[in-house]
Amino acid sequence: MQSTLQRLADTSLIGRLGPRIALAALLVCLSSCSLLTIKSPEKPLSPRDITARIVEHEYSAHFITAVDQTADSITAATDDPAVHLNALRWKLGASGASLQAASQLVPMLSVMDSWALAIQMRDFLSEGGGATLFGTQQAQAVTLAADLARDAESLARRLTSP
Questions:
Q1: CA 1, CA 9: separation in Å to the nearest integer?
Q2: pLDDT tens, position by position, 60-70
Q3: Which residues of 123-157 are buried (b: 16+ CB within 10 A; e: fewer)?
């Protein structure tokens, strides 16, 4: 039985090319190590931009976590399926928008986009089309949105001051 399997493996394409493919892959890996260089045509980020990028990603993580926790609190406080659906939509939409804002190529644009997002969310939930999304729990969302807008403004002012 063993010799039959061995003969099939030896006569198959894999049996004949297998060692050659492995050797070629090894040679490519070894030779490419010294040949591979990555050069960026862009200049490195300034210390201010590095700080802005780090702080902005921290703010985005805080934004997403705060919205998730508030949406979960709203959901736990009501049995209304429409409110549950709206809370889920808010979590998904706000998380995606915050990540997109934080992912701009220019760090200061990320800061400004996050600030704009927070202001838009505050206005939407307090007096815009989203003013009734969460029924009796609307105040939780409005309070959080106002806090996030205030935090974003503070962050933007701190990073843009000379």
A1: 13
A2: 999 999 999 99
A3: bbbbeeebeebbeebbebbbebbbebbebbeebbe
